[in-house]
Specification:
This protein is an alpha/beta fold and 140 residues long. It has a single domain, classed as Rossmann fold (3-Layer(aba) Sandwich), CATH 3.40.50.2300. It is built from 5 helices and 5 strands, in the order E-H-E-H-E-H-E-H-E-H. The chain has a 5-stranded parallel β-sheet with strand order 2-1-3-4-5, sandwiched between helices. Helix 2 runs parallel beside helix 3. It is globular, with a radius of gyration of 14 Å. Pfam families: Response_reg. It comes from Tuwongella immobilis. This is Response regulatory domain-containing protein.
């Protein structure tokens, strides 16, 4: 984090097998000053995390081959300390318990709300990297 608590230096990885969902999340996050990487699969996300400096990852739960939860677990097994948020249409108590046991920061139910996404991202980054100032826009 830079000295002003700006969001400009934070890089967020968004992983979802649905292109429009990835782009929608990107369109919520980038105007707040964050940089993003997009991945279409868990495998692609793992590759990006190994090659780039990522500060936070958002994973869709339901993806082919690797679920978002499995992707998160594989990243953490590689000794990469990365705050992760799961997004899912099936936010059951069992999934919430599994996500918390896998050290996910939060689970956001679909359809996602811009306010909830930004609030959760800011809180997760603040918890892991220190306090952030309020994002650029007024959340609508």
């Amino acid at each position: 984090m830079n000295e002003t608590g700006s969001t400009d230096n934070y890089v967020i990885l968004i992983t979802d097998d649905d292109r429009s969902s990835r782009e929608s999340l990107r369109d919520m996050i980038e105007p707040e000053g964050f940089r993003t990487f997009l991945a279409a699969s868990g495998e692609e996300a793992i590759e990006i995390v190994q090659q780039e400096s990522i500060h936070l990852a958002i994973f869709d739960y339901h993806m082919p081959t690797l679920t978002g939860l499995e992707t998160l677990q594989l990243i953490h097994q590689s000794n990469i300390a990365l705050p992760c948020i799961l997004v899912t249409a099936d936010a059951t108590k069992d999934l919430m318990r599994q996500a918390l046991n896998a050290q996910a920061y939060s689970v956001i139910p679909k359809p996602v709300s811009k306010n909830v996404v930004l609030y959760t991202v800011i809180r997760a980054l603040g918890r892991f990297y220190g306090r952030l100032r309020t994002p650029r826009s007024t959340w609508e």
